[in-house]
Amino acid sequence: MSADPRAARTRARLHEALFEACADRPLGEVSVAEVTRLARVSRGTFYLHYEDLSALAVGASAELVRDAVDALHASDDPPAVLAGLLGSISQHANVYRGLIGPGGGGPLGEALHGELRDRALVERRKRAVQPGDEAIASAVAATFTGVVAGWLHGRVPGTAGEVAGRIWGMVVALHRSL
Question: Contact 120/136 with Cβ under 8 angstroms?
Fold first, then answer.
C-alpha cells in the first residue's frame, strides 16, 4: 500500500464506511456501492485500494490484529487489556464474523494466528531456545484465535471480561507446559 497521506486518508474513510455499513447487518449483506457512497469515493477509487469487500475488511482489521498481539503481551494487566480488546471486537462483530469462522478459520483468523504465533515464538526465544517452542507458540495462537472466534459466533458464552480471563489462564498454562 502507498505511503501517500491522501491514500491513507482514503483507506481510513473506506474502513469507517465499512464499519458503519455493517453496524446492523453482516458483511455479506453490504455492497461496494454502499461503502463507496458512505466513504464519498468512487468505485474506481475503491478498486485502486482493494480488490473486493473482503480485502477491505481484512485491511480494516489490521489494527485489530496488532492490538490482539499487543494485548497478549501487555506488561500491565493482560486480562484487562484483553477485555478491552474483546469489547472493541464486539462493537464491530458483524464485520469480524464475516472474516473469522466459528472454528477460527477465514482471512482474519489466519492473520491473527500467524501474527500471534510469530510474536509468541519471539517472546519465548528471548528467554532461550527450548524444545517445543514452535508447538507452544502455535497452541497460544490457536487458543486465542479459536476462543475469540467461538465467542464471536455465540459458541463461547461470557462477557468480554470473563472470556479474557479464560483466554489469559489458558495462555499462561500453555507457556508453562514445556
Answer: yes
Residue 49: other Cβ atoms inside 10 A: 16
pLDDT tens per residue across span 108-144: 899 889 999 998 888 888 877 778 889 999 999 999 9
Which sign, positive or negative, has the C-alpha torsion 73, 76, 81, 82?
A: positive
List, for residues 15-70, the tens digit of each pLDDT value: 999 999 988 888 889 999 999 999 999 999 999 999 999 899 888 888 888 888 88
For CA atoms 146, 151, 155, 156, give the dihedral sign.
positive
Q: Is 103 exposed, middle or buried (0-12, 13-18, 19+ CB in 10 A)?
A: middle
d(CA 48, CA 73): 35
Rounded to two decimals, the pTM is 0.81
SS percent in the chain: helix, strand, coil, step 5: 75, 0, 25
Find, among 55, 57, 49, 51, the residue nearest to 22 by Cα: 57
Amino acid identity for residue 130 in this structure: Q
